[in-house]
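User: I've been going back and forth on whether these two constructs are worth ordering. Before I decide, could you fold them both?

Assistant: Sure. I'll take them in the order you sent them. The first construct and its structure tokens:
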Amino acid sequence: MDVRIAEQNLEVEREKSEVLRKNLIDVSAQLEEIKSPLFVTSVKKGEVLLKNRKTQITDKLNLEMKKKCALGELQNTRGQWQRMDQNLQHFLNKTLSTFGLRMQRMAVQEPRLSPVTETTGS
């Protein structure tokens, strides 16, 4: 009985060693592939491509942020001008109302030409 168990254990150990040998061959082949100049070059190119892509994304994000900041500043400036215009209108209305006048919006009109009459002097 012990002999049969020992033979089974020996067979299991042989199968394990065969699997390990195949794995070792696969790992050795992969190691040789990694050492090959073509693989090293492709890895370096990949790193460069990743670095370039990261730079492109970073540049794009920076540009978007600059656009948003510029747009925000433009909107702030527009708001400031609108507030200044409202304050000025309010000030003018108050000033004019103290004198009993009212501010009227003036429309641009074409100047009217009055007929010129010649006077003759005798």
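The second construct, handled the same way:
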Amino acid sequence: MSSPGDPVEIPINGTLDLHGFNPKDVKELVVEYLDECTRKGIMEGSIIHGKGIG
């Protein structure tokens, strides 16, 4: 069972869905995700986000 602070494993496939992530964590997550995509040779992709209310 995972706790709220546990790392989340996400697939590195060129599509990053930000739903469910804390906004304060998103900047670092996106940078790390794009770096990993580059390492895997994925040169284009999508970032799925939602409309914020704040």
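Notes on the second construct follow. Residues 23-39 form the longest helix (17 residues). The beta strands are 15-17, 46-48.
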